[in-house]
Design a protein that fits this description.
Blueprint: H1 3-27, H2 31-55, H3 60-90, H4 138-146
Helix pairs in contact: 1-2, 2-3
Length: about 150
């Protein structure tokens, strides 16, 4: 395999890792999943830098990846402590709970109002109680099903 094909393969895998991480980060609301997706994006970038460094016969990409790994390790410690703090305070890992961790007297930031969910009560057919004869009038039955 020539060098261009190897570079393209590495860059393709790096782009797939980055895209999967970005998609997971934007879609999921669980803090641990978001943290893992951010790490996946860093790994995609690292793989691309190593591929470019190998292609150009330069150690700059590999040295930058070692720096990224060191920063990611520090980030992991800080992120896990924040996740534990939120979990202890709220009992949940949902990202919306960060609104409750603001200073006293500060209004929560709302990007846009989310409409309340309305649960329409489903009308289920009911059996007549024992000993009571059911109505056989079709108009009463139609009226009862529309209520």
């Amino acid at each position: 395999m020539n060098e261009i094909a190897i570079l393209q393969n590495y860059l393709l895998v790096g782009a797939i890792l980055f895209t999967l991480g970005l998609t997971g980060f934007l879609i999921r609301r669980n803090l641990i999943i978001m943290f893992l997706c951010a790490e996946m994006m860093l790994q995609g970038i690292s793989l691309s830098m190593i591929a470019w460094g190998r292609y150009h016969n330069d150690w700059g990409g590999q040295m930058l990846v070692i720096f990224i790994i060191a920063v990611a390790a520090c980030e992991a410690g800080i992120a896990l402590s924040l996740i534990l703090m939120l979990c202890r305070k709220s009992g949940s890992l949902d990202i919306i709970n960060w609104q409750n961790c603001r200073e006293e007297g500060t209004m929560p930031y709302t990007d846009r109002e989310v409409p309340e969910e309305s649960f329409d009560e489903d009308l289920w057919p009911s059996l007549t109680p024992a000993g009571v004869e059911p109505d056989t009038d079709p108009e009463k039955q139609m009226h009862r099903s529309n209520v």
